[in-house]
Amino acid sequence: MSQTALSPAIDHPTPTKPTAPPADLTLEERLTLVKAEMTARLNEAAVAYEVNTAHIPTDPVDLADVITLPVTPTLQPPPASYPTPVAALLQRAHHRLLTGGWCSGALVDEDGARCMLGAIRAEARGDRGLEADAASVLLDAIRRKFGDDVDSVPSFNDAHGSARTPLRMVDQAAGLADARGL
Fold first, then answer.
1. Could you tell me which residues come within 8 angstroms of residue 26 by beta carbon, excluding any fewer than 6 positions away?
2. What share of the chain is helix, strand, coil (3-state, %, to 5)?
3. Which residue has the higher pLDDT, 60 or 136?
4. 160 and 83 in one domain?
5. Which end of the chain is flanked by fewer CB atoms within 10 Å, N or C?
6. Please, which pLDDT band fits residue 90 given cuts at 50, 70 and 90?
7. Among candidate residues 165, 123, 107, 116, the one with its CA nearest the CA of residue 138
8. What is the pTM of this model?
9. What's the DSSP call for residue 61?
10. What does the alpha-carbon distance between residue 128 and residue 3 come to, in Å, rounded to a whole number?
């Protein structure tokens, strides 16, 4: 038995040099031909890429982590407030984090930035019951997204190196509180 009989028959296309368009064509006709040839080459390359990368496992991407908008929060007015007290408090805390800054490791850092709980406490304005309700809804929203392994709001806040996820969770908690009528 020969070696070639055992190997699979894979047809590898050989790259061909593009042929020059005939000289009697106008510039627009030559450009149209080149465009058609480039489109065919790009389509072939796209198919080759899909075939070559189909075996690579990928994790789903959370678009909220990818899509960012240029935001100047100090120039933007706060959004219309939720009608329920806990939801409105969480919405104000979210806006405070956007405008005043987010920090980890302290309720308030030396620049005035706040952690999630620090923003809730500041916006509760001394109402400990409202603050506790807001922190409870926030912890519930966090656990819905990240599982029951999260011990507390401060530990979740301090586990992140950027404000993106904590701010998103405060915003989602405001929606959750409003849905619950809190």
1. none
2. 60, 0, 40
3. 136
4. yes
5. N
6. very high
7. 116
8. 0.58
9. P
10. 81
